[in-house]
Amino acid sequence: MDRIRIRGGNQLNGTIPVSGAKNAALPLMIASLLTDDTLTLENVPHLADVELLIRILGNHGVDYSVNGRRENQRKGHSRTIHFSARSIVDTTAPYELVSKMRASFWVIGPLLARMGEARVSLPGGCAIGTRPVDLFIDGLRALGAEIEIDGGYVVARAKNGLSGGRYRFPKVSVGATHVLMMAATLAKHETVLENAAREPEIVNLAECLNAMGAKISGFGTSTIRITGVTSLSGARHRIIPDRIETGTYALAAAMTGGDVFLEGARADLLEAALKTIEQTGTEITRTNAGIRVKRNGAGIAAVDMETEPFPGFPTDLQAQFMALMTMAQGQSRITETIFENRFMHVQELARLGARISLSGQTAIVDGVERLRGAPVMATDLRASVSLVIAGLAAEGETLVNRVYHLDRGFERLEEKLSGCGAQIERISG
Ligand code: EPZ
């Protein structure tokens, strides 16, 4: 198994290009199931999760082709991919595949809408919490589906097509909003989704669906209206820059000091996080071409933070922000409100010398003057990258195990960081 070796202590200086967003790419790829035409997605990041979803979609009958290699499409770089679901050959998503990636559960929406049936394995628990699917089930029922659970599978039927309907999410869910929005595009009547997620990835998906002929309005607000159409066509659509990758490298620059330009980043996708990072004493400059992050000399101020659905501070940056706070001057309180078990990085950060105690859903971080390198390991993607950030600032060597988590969500991580002066390398085997 690959590991990442970091020699900490170097400042980051230089330019990091921001890749296409993983969490926008995944639902957009799944949307290709809604049409027998070709959906072309630009700026698809080259990540393990994307490759896995390509295989999963292939199981349902989706063919794909990658544009010829051009200068900026070298191996490991974002690409343009054409997806074509001319005919759906299988409406079952088996446990072996869904258990590998939770987002593959989302095929339930398009399969049900287009084929009138879907049989999708329950995803099961994962490292950051139980993550149930009750909102998907209740929501699809509100749109007219008949649903039963059979042998670990959610079996959804709408023999004469979905009718559409009104559904108010009792809790904001990104995945359930994606799914209900996709399912409603082909319903007979209007659908109204209340207390819907407002994440930029929802907006990116809605814009793509509209380009395919859907009639969706209100996306980006908490009430989304969808008027069903009889069929959707193909389209060409660009994936937004990854706001979590952007925030991660911004936090890495804040942690090590230095001056980094995040090329292609869009500040409007992560304003809450940028404002919180600014409060730590980091200078952030927003430009049309990207975001510049600079911290020279001064110490890191301790700042309290609470995760929230968009437009609040994203849970996917909580672990990375905690890494920064481990070296802050004073105490900070970090509260996780989205997932009930997303503090797996706390113990590992402690191995580097961090002082963190947990009180329910709040981590109390007492900043230390220095961290010291150690072997560490994490159980999910964002926790893993928080250890990389801490390792970049720690004295000596940090070895991050289970690198496959990083490969799921960070394109060319070592290359991007070493390009800015970090001593970081992958050790194979
Ligand atoms: C998406 O997951 C992201 N994944 C997650 O990123 C992200 O952390 C999360 O949204 C929150 O922003 C992708 O986009 C692929 P939710 P999702 O449904 O959609 C509860 C990463 O590292 N809930 O918004 O699965 C749920 O348990 C990943 O890239 C129910 O109770 O998250 C959680 O507490 C990790 N019932 C809360 O809602 C349901 O039926 C929000 O989850 C569905 C969700």
Explain the layout of strands and helices:
Layout: E1 3-7, E2 12-17, H1 22-31, E3 38-44, H2 48-60, E4 63-66, E5 79-84, E6 92-93, H3 95-98, H4 108-115, E7 117-121, H5 134-142, E8 146-150, E9 153-157, E10 166-168, H6 174-184, E11 190-194, H7 200-211, E12 215-217, E13 223-227, E14 235-238, H8 243-256, E15 258-263, H9 271-279, E16 283-287, E17 290-295, E18 305-306, H10 318-325, E19 331-335, H11 345-351, E20 355-359, E21 362-366, E22 375-377, H12 381-393, E23 397-401, H13 404-409, H14 413-418, E24 423-427
Parallel strand pairs: 2-15, 3-14, 6-7, 10-11, 18-19, 22-23
Antiparallel strand pairs: 1-23, 1-24, 3-5, 4-5, 7-9, 8-9, 11-13, 12-13, 15-17, 16-17, 19-21, 20-21
Helix pairs in contact: 1-2, 1-7, 4-6, 5-6, 6-7, 8-10, 8-12, 10-12
Describe the overall structure.
This protein has helices at 22-31, 48-60, 95-98, 108-115, 134-142, 174-184, 200-211, 243-256, 271-279, 318-325, 345-351, 381-393, 404-409, 413-418, and strands spanning 3-7, 12-17, 38-44, 63-66, 79-84, 92-93, 117-121, 146-150, 153-157, 166-168, 190-194, 215-217, 223-227, 235-238, 258-263, 283-287, 290-295, 305-306, 331-335, 355-359, 362-366, 375-377, 397-401, 423-427. With 429 residues, it is α/β, with parallel strands linked by helices. The chain folds into two domains: 3-18 and 241-427, UDP-n-acetylglucosamine1-carboxyvinyl-transferase, Chain (Alpha-beta prism); 22-238, UDP-n-acetylglucosamine1-carboxyvinyl-transferase, Chain (Alpha-beta prism), CATH 3.65.10.10. The strands form six sheets. A four-stranded mixed beta sheet has the order 22-23-1-24. Helix 1 (22-31) runs parallel beside helix 2 (48-60). It is globular. The protein starts with a strand and ends with a strand. The relative contact order is 0.16. The model has no long low-confidence stretch (mean pLDDT 95). It binds ligand EPZ. The site of ligand EPZ has 23 residues, from helix 1, helix 5, helix 6 and helix 12.
